[in-house]
Design brief:
The complex is a heterodimer of chains A (about 150) and B (about 110). Chain A has about 150 residues and is an alpha+beta fold. Chain A has a five-stranded antiparallel beta sheet with strand order 1-2-3-5-4, covered by helices on one side. The model of chain A has no long low-confidence stretch (mean pLDDT about 90). With about 110 residues, chain B is α/β, with parallel strands linked by helices. In chain B, strands 1-2-3-4-5 form a five-stranded mixed beta sheet. In chain B, strand 1 and strand 2 form a beta hairpin. The longest helix of chain B is centred in the first third of the chain and has 18 residues. The chains are: A alpha+beta (about 150), B alpha/beta (about 110). At the A-B interface, helix 1, helix 2 and helix 4 of A face helix 1, helix 2 and helix 3 of B.
Chain lengths: ~150, ~110
């Protein structure tokens, strides 16, 4: 049984898989986590991880169509940011393979480093995919507590 | 897309700007490769000083430029990297295959 998480704050956005929305998703997560007073480095890491996850939805989940991407974020006790990014696209056939650095099914403009970067920039990273149904990425990042204002 | 570049003694400096993500990567790669094909530089410098954000798409930009320079027996230098793009490049181990020039920004 999974313990119910108590969120201090939450948000959900849904947008179509247009590549212009990569920047939108980064801006949304940056605005949302501003209330946690992140350092510039932390903010950079979080924006990078979100950018990778959303790009994967656009490039891989919906290669020949525009589909829906849902991004949820929540703030958990202990200054932890949780991010869930979900698509209803084609799913991943071989997750182990997809997680390998430098592996990509994309073109030469893709580096195959997206998942590796999400894993190394976030404190927790999980990916769940059902082939033909879609993929969900769960990420958590613990932020340093700065100052005493809460 | 307006990407400015500067050529001197077969040394080409390309000034990258803004957010480098998948949305812009294809175009940036095309412009950088076209400039290298046009000027055949012995040294190509990618200047990141005006880059506001970069994800793994930027790694592909660097790798494509590196491939072009190797065809010419030339060198690729990455200059003026802000902390965020530098962190992404280091996560990919790019410092092992391309030269990163650490210098104080003007």
């Amino acid at each position: 049984m999974r313990k119910k998480t108590n969120y201090i704050n939450q948000m959900t956005v849904e947008f179509p898989s247009n590549s212009a929305n990569e920047g939108f998703a980064r801006a949304v997560i940056a605005c949302f986590c501003a209330q946690m007073d992140p350092t510039l480095d932390e903010l950079g890491d979080i924006k990078t991880a979100v950018s990778e996850a959303v790009t994967n939805c656009i490039v891989h989940a919906y290669p020949n169509e525009i589909g829906s991407i849902v991004m949820k974020a929540g703030i958990i006790e202990g200054n932890v940011l949780e991010i869930v990014i979900r698509d209803k696209g084609c799913g991943i056939l071989d997750i182990q393979k997809a997680r390998e650095p430098m592996y990509t099914t994309g073109g030469p403009e893709r580096s195959g480093m997206g998942i590796t970067i999400m894993e190394s920039f976030m404190t927790e990273f999980r990916i769940r995919s059902i082939y033909g149904k879609g993929t969900t990425v769960y990420m958590k990042r613990k932020l340093t507590k700065r100052g005493s204002h809460t | 897309m307006n990407i400015t570049s500067f050529l001197q003694n077969r040394q080409l400096t390309v000034a990258l700007t803004g957010d480098i993500d998948h949305h812009r990567a294809k175009e940036i790669i095309r412009v950088v490769e076209d400039k290298i094909d046009q000027y055949l530089p012995l040294v190509c410098i990618l200047d990141f000083s005006e880059v506001t954000f970069m994800d793994s798409s930027g790694i592909a930009v660097v790798i494509c430029a590196l491939r072009k320079e190797r065809e010419l027996d030339g060198r690729l230098l990455l200059a003026n990297l802000p902390p965020q793009p530098l962190r992404v490049l280091k996560a990919a181990g790019i410092e092992k295959i391309a030269e990163i020039r650490e210098e104080s920004r003007l």
